[in-house]
Amino acid sequence: MIEESRIDRTIVIDGIPLPELLDEPMVRAVVHGFYDEILRDDLLGPVFSEAIVAEAWPRHLEKMCDFWSATLLRTSRYDGRPLPPHLAIPGLDERHFRRWLSLFRATVRRLCPPEVAQLFMNRALRIAHSFRLAIAFHRGENALHIQPIAEDAL
Fold this sequence. Notes:
By secondary structure, the protein is mostly helical. It has helices at 24-40, 44-51, 57-72, 83-87, 94-111, 114-138; strands at 12-13, 16-17.
């Protein structure tokens, strides 16, 4: 009889081994805590409330939990395309992304140990820049002037 062996694989994100502290409950806490802040925010709350009807929020939150789980924990739960819904939002611009990043940073700093908060933020900063470039391209705008938003500039 051949004994099954369990292979522990260290997940590496951006060259940093994933801290054991980061798990599904933490991802869920971040997602739910962040969107609680979003819905209370004067700038972003109306944008999200218009884009996502009240009865669709539970599914959206689960989808975002799947997204962040796949992004940081390397699960395969997310199979969506996050960009198209953002392309459909008229007037979405840098101030929205800056506010999104500020609220996200406050949430991860409140809920996560520093090394985990930084992993979330590194990924969020990249996502924001990628989305800003894609939105400009989609609108036929010149994207050459779009610079990444630096965390220390929030």
